[in-house]
Amino acid sequence: MIKLKAEVAGKNHQISIQRREAVVLAEVDGxxxxxxxxxxxxSEYLLIDGNTVYNCRVENSRxxxxxxxxxxxxxxxxxxxxxxxxxxxxxxxxxxDKGAARILAxxxxxxxxVLVEAGAEVETGAGIxxxxxxxxxxxxxxxxxxxVVSIHAQVGSTVNAGDILAVIE
Length: 169
Hints:
By secondary structure, the protein is mainly beta. It folds into two domains: 2-82, 2-Layer Sandwich (Glycoprotein, Type 4 Pilin); 85-168, CATH 2.40.50.100. Helix content is 4%, strand content 59%. It contains one helix and 16 strands. The strands form three sheets. Strands 1-2-3-4-5-6-7-8 form an eight-stranded antiparallel beta barrel. Strands 9-16-14-11 form a four-stranded antiparallel sheet, with no helix packed on it. A hairpin with a 2-residue loop joins strand 1 and strand 2 (11-20). The protein is elongated, with a radius of gyration of 17 Å. The protein starts with a strand and ends with a strand. Residues 86-97 have low confidence and may be disordered.
């Protein structure tokens, strides 16, 4: 079960998502949904709710690279997703300046690219690796400038939420 906070078109929502094969169990602000999900390729999906079929497109935002845009029923919705676990760990962000910073997997997924090698010098915000979760690719970035001490994931490996992906000193 993945628990997220999402800002959709300026309104905040609490979201829980669980995927079982082609079925998605979702809860949005206490409302529960059971949807069949069909990947149509090229960022397009069919969401099936009983006899109702929705065509949905999910893409990275052109204006805000860390956000996504969801198109549903011909309307584009800007979406900013936040993982509450990541927010809690970010609250101690100042301590990264003094010691090692760990980059953690935000949610279960698959490593699709490793962008740097151990030993590389990186700046704050530099891409370290890319994890695909729920058909979305998330670039994991350096929370501080420093040297990449270790990379704990390989391309193709599966990761769980909270797994340490890399360490920067």
